[in-house]
Structures are given as structure tokens and as C-alpha cells.
Amino acid sequence: MADTGAKLYETIALFNPDLDDEAIGERVKRMESVIGEHGGKMTSVNRWKKRRLAFPVKKHEEGLYVVLRFVADKALLPDLDYLLRYDEQCLRYLVLDVAKYPGMVRAKAKGEDK
Question: Domain containing 13 — which CATH number?
């Protein structure tokens, strides 16, 4: 990983609420593996409990969230996108460049303290 292209990213993935802890753990390990293969470095992993969704997503009214923060090159993003897009248990996901959304990061950082 070239130091000049490394950025802080945050990925939020919403998974099928019927998955058990082991299945979620396997998915987190796969994401960490892809990040590591590209020379990225994990900064944090947060697994949230089952949450009620504001609206149904792929016919699910609840979901399991996983929030990953990592530093990596932009070259990683297509592989991470592929991994999440074709995982049938991943209902939705979002990858953010933290530098582009500083307001969201501050709000998130305050929420993590609870």
C-alpha cells in the first residue's frame, strides 16, 4: 500500500437478522482478509445487536449491522464492493471516505461512547 493513497474508510454493512454470531464472524473475517490483502489496516470493528429498520430492506424488518473502520488504498474498494455485493446475506452496505464526511464522523464518534 502506498502511503500517499491511504485513506481512512468506514464500511457499514447490514446483514440478514437470521444469521448467528458465527456466520457474522466469518463475514467480518472475510472483510478483514480482503482489507489485509491490499495492505490495509483495521482500526475498529463494531458489531451491533439486531436493530429494527425504518423500512423493509429485501423483505426484512430487522437487521444486523457491522461497522468497520480501516486505512487503505482506493484500489481495495472494488474487491470489498464485490465481496459485499455478491454475499446473499448482506442486505445493504455503504463505504465512506471519512475525510469527505467529517460531520458524520464526529456524530458517529460521539455515539460510540454510549
Answer: 3.30.70.60
- Evaluate whether 22 touches 53 at the Cβ level (below 8 Å): no
Contact predicate 94/65, CB 8 Å: no
Beta bridge partners of 97: 9
Give CA separation, 72 vs 2, 68, 82, 97, in Å: 9, 12, 16, 10
The total of structural domains in the chain comes to 1
Residues 44 and 11 sit within 8 Å (Cβ to Cβ): no
Question: For the chain, how are helix, strand and coil distributed in percent, rounded to 5?
Answer: 40, 40, 20
Give the model confidence (pLDDT) of 63-99 as tens digits: 999 999 999 999 999 999 999 999 999 999 999 998 8
Structural domain of residue 59, as residue ranges?
A: 3-112
pLDDT in tens, 35-46: 999 999 999 999
DSSP state of 100: G
| Residue 106, all three cell numbers | 464526529
